[in-house]
Write a structure and sequence with these properties.
409 residues, mainly alpha, Serine Threonine Protein Phosphatase 5, Tetratricopeptide repeat, Glutaredoxin, 3 domains
């Protein structure tokens, strides 16, 4: 009969050998990955690679797990964390151009332009790498550089319609912006037509800095990346943006303002500056996942603190459907657009007044995490047991002439 002590010793040694087997680590990690438990798989593989640093299969499994976590971070808008996880994966497989590309894209989305460009250059001369290098040049004010990169990308991918749109837009902007003078403040890069009145650019920069502080306090965010702003004559603004005649400004990654005919900063222009800067912050907070009515409603709140325009009356029995207000307003005629902005303002103002700015900030946070507006409102107003339909219902009841129709449909 085998001695009990010897048996226990043999079992212990066998267990130790089994735990030290890289195949066992890899199999367990693979089982966790198949269940979607990448975090636990990551811990298993980190422990395994520390024991077996020269095992290539474990190293590739660990890199794969880091990259899958990074992709989840990207989808959730956690761009800095995605960049870090792609970095960990790339260090394990330094020859991978795909991992360099993905990290470059994550860092571009996080507006970490300098490091993003370095990663994208490492990714080589592929079309996607050139597209994002071009976007960095475009976002930092180098239109000729952006065009050169995008044209090279187009040679590699001639059927890419998105790329064709980028090139067409940049070609439309270049003749106007190439003759602009430049101005700067702590957070803003200003381009302005040399024919504009002297002193106006400085007044605009002062208003932008005021908006940075005031709107940032309401929405709870202060950007750290410099923000480009362009001042146009009305003719140049129309040719560059192709916007509707009633448009008083635009934010498309750059704040664009028509100021032709203005000799000094007016309350109306100051209001537009606050309006457009609000779009900058909403885009940063939501990653663009925001219905138009909420985006424009917040911008109207901030703009009307500086100047209150004449607005159409909104009555509860004559409301624009929410489905229409969720989309863009640029295709609307002037009268309908005025009603759309006013209704958006009233709904958003109601939310801020009734539930507080913290609730508004929470809605923006949940939108930034990828939730739709219904879910974002329900989470932000869980203490009130309200969803979006409940908020709209309460708002409608506060309007004159309420009681018919359904604005939430």
């Amino acid at each position: 009969m085998l001695d009990r002590t010897l048996l226990l010793a043999l079992l212990f040694c066998a267990g130790t050998a089994l735990a030290a087997d890289p195949v066992t680590y890899g199999t367990k990690a693979q089982q966790l990955i198949s269940k979607g438990d990448f975090v636990q798989a990551l811990e298993e593989l980190k422990a395994a690679t520390s024991r077996f640093p020269y095992d290539l299969e474990l190293k590739h499994q660990l890199a794969f797990t880091y990259s899958e976590l990074a992709k989840r971070d990207l989808q959730a808008g956690r761009y800095a964390q995605a960049g870090e996880n792609f970095k960990q994966a790339h260090e394990l497989i330094p020859d991978s151009k795909e991992l360099a590309l993905m990290r470059g894209i994550a860092l571009y989305l996080n507006k970490d332009y300098s490091v993003a460009r370095d990663e994208l250059i490492q990714a080589g001369e592929g079309s996607e790498s050139l597209v994002y290098q071009g976007k960095i040049s475009y976002d930092t004010g180098d239109l000729p550089g952006a065009l050169e990169l995008w044209r090279r990308a187009k040679e590699l991918d001639p059927a890419n319609k998105v790329l064709a749109t980028l090139i067409e837009k940049a070609e439309r902007e270049l003749p106007v912006e190439s003759r602009m003078d430049k101005g700067y403040s702590s957070m803003f890069d200003l381009g302005f037509d040399a024919e504009l009145p002297p002193g106006l650019s400085a007044e605009v920069l002062d208003a932008l800095e005021s908006a940075y502080n005031a709107v940032g306090a309401d929405l709870g965010v202060f950007p750290t990346t410099r923000i480009p702003v362009l001042l146009y004559t009305r003719k140049d603004y129309s040719s560059v943006t192709a916007g509707p005649d009633w448009s008083g400004g635009l934010y498309d990654g750059k704040i664009r303002l028509p100021v032709g005919g203005i000799t000094k900063l007016t309350p109306q222009l100051r209001a537009i500056i606050f309006h457009e800067f609000t779009h900058v912050l909403v885009a940063e907070l939501t990653r663009g996942n925001v219905p138009t009515w909420f985006n424009e409603g917040l911008a109207e709140i901030e703009g009307r603190k500086e100047y209150v325009p004449r607005v159409p009356e909104v009555r509860g029995n004559h409301l624009i459907p929410m489905a229409t207000l969720t989309k863009g307003f640029t295709g609307m005629a002037g009268t309908e657009a005025g009603l759309a902005y006013q209704q958006s303002y009233l709904m958003t103002r109601f939310m801020a007044d009734r539930y507080g700015w913290y609730a508004v900030q929470q809605v923006l946070k949940y939108l930034g995490q990828g939730n739709n507006m219904d879910a974002a409102v329900a989470k932000a107003l869980s203490d009130y047991s309200l969803d979006l339909n409940g908020v709209v219902r309460e708002w409608r009841e506060s309007l004159p002439g309420s009681g018919t129709g359904d604005a939430a449909q």
